[in-house]
Amino acid sequence: SSQDRVAMRLERPSRPDAKLEAGDNTLIVEIGTGTSLHIQYASETYLQEFEKAQSVHYYAVDWMADRIEGGENNARALHTDAARERIHHLALDGRRLPFQNASVTEVIMENVLGGGTSVSDGLIEEAARVLKQGGLLKIVDYYTPWMADGPMQYMRSYPGAFAPIAESEAKPPIDETSLNERIRGSSTYQRTKGFIEYFRRV
Questions:
Q1: In which region does residue 116 sit, left (phi positive, over 0), alpha (psi from -120 to 50) or beta (all else)?
Q2: Is 91 exposed, middle or buried (0-12, 13-18, 19+ CB in 10 A)?
């Protein structure tokens, strides 16, 4: 079953190809970033907090190199130097992240699961592998939220790796209140009845 696959994957030792160590840094990883980061249009409040948090690094991951190039160009145009130097763009498969087990503080997926990607594709399992105990998985969808219904039902009912938590209880590395407000205020989010949900790694 999908639950068994998750459990088996979490029990294996550290991956020999995991090269990016967190050290004293706090890692945020966005899977399936496309050409615009989740924080691309963050409020000034969020960006100011990001700039102050010198230990926080943001990794934008997408398997298509041209999307990563587009994301880099957008970040170069919209973010300050202080922010850009801690935003890293990686063209690779989100199911094979180059991070050690239990080394990431937050994983973000925006408009990914609703795009036809199923839980069995391994994205949820990989998020579970890299997240620290107590780390956050944030799932956002406002493009095709109805297509994410199956994976989201799985997430809400599966107790082995993640537990759903209220947004008010989530404590991401940088407060996301203003960021989430801007997302919810978009006409697309309101038209499609999008969602923002948090899960804690158990």
A1: left
A2: middle
CA angle at residue 145 from 141 to 149, to 5 degrees? Answer: 115
95 Rama class: left (phi>0) / alpha (psi -120 to 50) / beta: alpha
Phi-psi region of 32 (alpha: psi -120 to 50; beta: other; left: phi over 0): left
Can you state the angle between helices 123-130 and 149-157, rounded to 10 degrees?
A: 40
Dig out the tokens for 86 from the structure: 């801690």
Strands 56-62 vs 87-91: parallel, antiparallel or unpaired: parallel
Residues 14-35 have pLDDT tens digits of 343 445 667 789 999 999 887 7
Give the predicted TM-score (pTM) of the model: 0.85
Express each pLDDT in 31-77 by its tens digit.
988 777 888 777 788 888 888 898 999 998 988 777 667 666 666 66
